[in-house]
TrEMBL record:
General function of this protein: Responsible for synthesis of pseudouridine from uracil-55 in the psi GC loop of transfer RNAs.
Protein name (Swiss-Prot/TrEMBL): tRNA pseudouridine synthase B
InterPro entries: PsdUridine_synth_cat_dom_sf, PsdUridine_synth_N, PUA-like_sf, PUA_sf, tRNA_psdUridine_synth_fam2_C, tRNA_psdUridine_synth_TruB, TruB_C
Pseudouridine synthase II N-terminal domain ranges (all copies): 31-187
One annotated GO molecular function: RNA binding
Length: 301
């Protein structure tokens, strides 16, 4: 009799290679983990590399809540050229000599794009406009506007400014930057907007995501490494790293699993999703406080 293969519930932190879509990585992981139940907590552009959080089996129920967490990136912004996609994947639409821009002007432009800002996402993005993906409208040559959305850029730092010459001979400046931002922030839109503010255009030439919420690059594995050894962060550990923890006694654990809305301590009010654990350390549920009671978001027990 053949042994039944069981895939553990949990998160897989992937170091995504360049050239892969997030969906490509999910498809690959379905093969590695031998299950259809795989999803991702927020996409990463094909050009970009770095942390992509995947959920396997029951952990897929965590993903929508993890997608809302803060992200951290390292990237390179090229000043002096605009592209159709605001990154190096798209064709160049304009070129302007950027060699005369002083560092002070760069820092002033970066400061304007730090904090709580309104950002217009890139037109070649997965955002839906009246039910149709923005990139589809853009590729069909349609004229349309995407409304600006509030995002938070809590840190935008320039580590290095390098003079370079683009392939078409235009003198450009390459900025090595790090960004810490809220979910839904487009780093290529920051590149575009910085270039526009400085009057020379700008786009993103490289991007590496180094953190999604509490999950960092040092715990990520390449697809090749995962093919050799599937490393799954148990769902209980993954939830404890990402959400406030609430330990309940056996009686309340049973009530919760039976659909009873427990009274929640005031300490969890306004905290968003909270991970609930039973006495043995088992992960029971994600809940959120609603009028003093625990409203279930997902049950795991």
């Amino acid at each position: 009799m053949t042994e039944k293969h069981t895939t553990p519930d949990g998160l897989v932190i992937v170091d995504k290679p360049s050239g892969f879509t997030s969906h490509d990585v999910v498809a690959k992981m379905r093969g590695i983990a031998r299950t259809r139940r795989v999803g991702h907590a927020g996409t990463l552009d094909p050009m970009a590399t770095g942390v992509l959080v995947l959920g396997v089996e029951k952990a897929t129920k965590l993903l929508g809540h993890l997608a809302l967490t803060e992200k951290e990136y390292l990237g390179t912004i090229r000043l002096g050229q605009n592209t159709l996609t605001d990154d190096a994947e798209g064709e160049i639409t304009s070129s302007t000599d950027a060699s005369g821009i002083p560092r002070e002007a760069v820092d002033t432009g970066v400061a304007k794009l730090t904090g709580a800002i309104m950002q217009v996402p890139s037109k070649v993005s997965a955002i839906k406009i009246n039910g149709v993906r923005s990139y589809k409208r853009a590729r069909e040559g349609e004229e349309f506007e995407i409304p600006a959305r509030p995002v938070t850029v809590s840190s935008f730092a320039v580590y290095d400014v390098r003079e370079a010459v683009a392939e078409n001979g235009t003198p450009v400046l390459d900025l090595v930057v790090s960004v810490v931002c809220s979910s839904g922030t487009y780093i290529r839109a920051l590149a575009r907007d910085l270039g526009a503010d400085l009057g020379v255009g700008g786009h993103l030439t490289a991007l590496r995501r180094t953190r999604v919420g509490p999950y960092k690059l040092d715990s990520a594995r390449t697809l090749d490494q995962l093919q050799q050894e599937l490393t799954v962060m148990p769902v209980a550990e993954a939830a404890a790293a990402a959400f406030p923890r609430w330990d309940v006694d056996t009686r309340r654990a049973k009530l919760l699993l039976n659909g009873v809305r427990l009274d929640m301590p005031d300490a969890y009010a306004g905290k968003g999703a909270v991970a609930v654990y039973e006495p043995g350390g088992g992960f029971l549920a994600l809940v959120e406080e609603h009028r003093g009671k625990a409203k279930s978001l997902a049950i795991f027990g």
